[in-house]
Every structure is written in C-alpha cells, then in structure tokens.
Amino acid sequence: MTFKWHDAQTSCERDCAGWIGAVGVITSETPAKFEEFVKGRALKGATVVLDSSGGSVLDAITLGRRWRSLGLRTTVGLVIASDERRDILPDAYCESMCAFLLLSGNTRTVPEGARVRVHQIWMGDRADDAKAATYSADDLMIVERDIGRLAKYTFDMGGTGDLLSLSLSVPPWEPLHQLTVDELRLTNLVTETTMADAKRPSDEVVGSAAPKAQDRVISAPEVSLISDVQSKDARSSPGTRTAEVHAPTGGAAPAAAERK
Fold first, then answer.
1. Three-state DSSP class for 70?
2. Left if phi > 0, otherwise alpha if psi is -120 to 50, otherwise beta: which for 145?
3. DSSP structure string for 2-60
4. Domains observed in the chain
5. Spatial distance between the Cα atoms of 61 and 19, rounded to a whole number of angstroms
6. How far apart are the C-alpha atoms of 248 and 246, rounded to whole Å?
7. Which of 114-123, 155-164, 205-214, 229-238 reaches the highest mean pLDDT?
8. Distances (CA, A) of 76 to 16, 23, 55, 190
9. Helix pair 30-38, 57-70: axis angle to 10 deg
10. How many Å separate Cα 133 from the centre of its chain?
11. Worst-scoring range by mean pLDDT, 47-51, 107-111, 243-247?
12. 88: helix, coil or strand?
C-alpha cells in the first residue's frame, strides 16, 4: 500500500483537512511505510481515502489501530488532484482486510458507487485451489489465532459481530460478498452519510461512534488470505504466519470475476 498527501482545495466545505490517498495491498512493510509518511505532518482530522483489495491481517490490524490513535477519518474512493480540480470520486473498491481499515476511522463514509466486499481468512499459499489443498493442525491454529485477534480488533474499533459473520460466511472459492447499504449500517462500517461529512475536519472524540461492548454480539471474523508474512503484532511469536491477499491493486480493484 502506498500513501500520498493531497491538500483539499480552498473552496472545500467546512475548511477541509487534507486527504490521504491509500492505494494497494497491505503487506508486512505497510505499517512502516505509513510511519515514514507521517513524519512532519499534522494529520488530525484528515481523511484516509481507501482503494485496496486487502492484504495481511495482522499488519492491517496494526495499521488500523495506528489510524484510530491519530483520530483519522476513513472513506472509500479515488482522489483526483489537479490545478483545476481536487475531489474524491467513489469509483473504488475496499475489499477483504480493507474493510477493517475502513472500520478504524474515527468517522467512516462509503459513498454511493463505492464497493466494500468481504470474504474469509484463508491460507494464501493455497488460495488458488483451496478445496484440493491439504492443511495441518498448525495451519488451523494460525487461522483461529488470527480470527481471534481480528474479532478483538473489530469490537475495539466499534464494529459489530455482523461484519465478522458476513465475512466468514464466504469461502475463498466463491465471489466476494459486496455489502449492501443496510449491511454497511448493520456492521457499523459507516457513521456518516455524505461525502461532505467525510471531507470536513473531525471534532468528535475518537471512538465516539462505537457501540458499547455489552451491546454487541460476537459471531465470527473476517477475511483475507494466509501466507508467510511477519507483523509487528506477531513479534512475540517469531516465525508466525498471518493472512494476506495476493490480488494486485493500482487503482480501483478489479471485479471479482476478473480476479478468479
């Protein structure tokens, strides 16, 4: 995943903070790349504009917690920046672990036309033929461990068990499930309804939109694919593996039919 800073145009509604374009696959290098990007920048109130097909589970969790600590906003889209125009277009995808990065926003918007799609966690090195592959007890341990960490993260960020349940119900050999408007609300992936809301600075307390833990029910967690990727969250267990998606991203993610 790459990060690019975009100043909002002076005519932006409510004196917009800038936008952070976040494009591409989340890898073991992504959290460090973001820390390098952060240096010298005052990011409070900025909006992260996501266009990603997902990636490493544990590294997405690390990055999402960092974004929440900075009080960033999140949305799905493509940043258009030129001398004549600066805007966020909705023609973008947020897939797999990207949905959980979206969840990390202090406030969250999914504009009409943007697509948020989910599926299960799986072993990345066997995702091409998941049904025919063989799996060890160690493989199952890795998947269950990452599901547990993802569940905790989801509730810490104010998501609901519905996000986990919807994600885990889609095996890797089926097309990703695109969340409906109702499902985006049900999962608490959206807290704002318009792009104008996404573009204005945030004055809310971080996590203020999150429902209380006792009001939420755990169903089961989300998605991506598993491979040999290190994460900062996994350093206490050297050599552990985590989830990762291998689909290329360099703009809007390709449709599910094109990725099979």
1. helix
2. alpha
3. EEEEEPPPTT-TT----EEEEES-B-TTHHHHHHHHHTT---TT-EEEEEB--B-HHHH
4. 2-251 (3.90.226)
5. 21
6. 6
7. 155-164
8. 17, 10, 16, 11
9. 20
10. 28
11. 243-247
12. strand
Question: What does the DSSP assignment read for 95-161?
Answer: ETTHHHHHHTSSSEE--TT-EEEE--EEEGGGGGGTTT----HHHHHHHHHHHHHHHHHHHHTT--H
Looking up tokens 């799996």 gives: 135
Rama region for 14: left / alpha / beta (φ>0; ψ in -120 to 50; rest)? left
Q: How many CB atoms lie within 10 A of CB 250?
A: 12
**Token pair listed for 64:** 């999402």
Per-residue pLDDT tens digits for 136-175: 888 888 888 999 999 999 999 999 999 999 999 998 888 9
Sort strands 108-109 and 73-76 into parallel, antiparallel or unpaired.
parallel
CB 169 within 8 A of CB 149: no
Do 47 and 17 form a contact (C-beta atoms < 8 A)? Answer: yes
pTM value surpassing 0.85: no
In the β-sheet with 177-178, what is the strand arrangement from edge to edge?
93-95, 115-118, 177-178
Give the pLDDT confidence of 167-179 residue by residue, as tens digits: 999 988 889 999 9
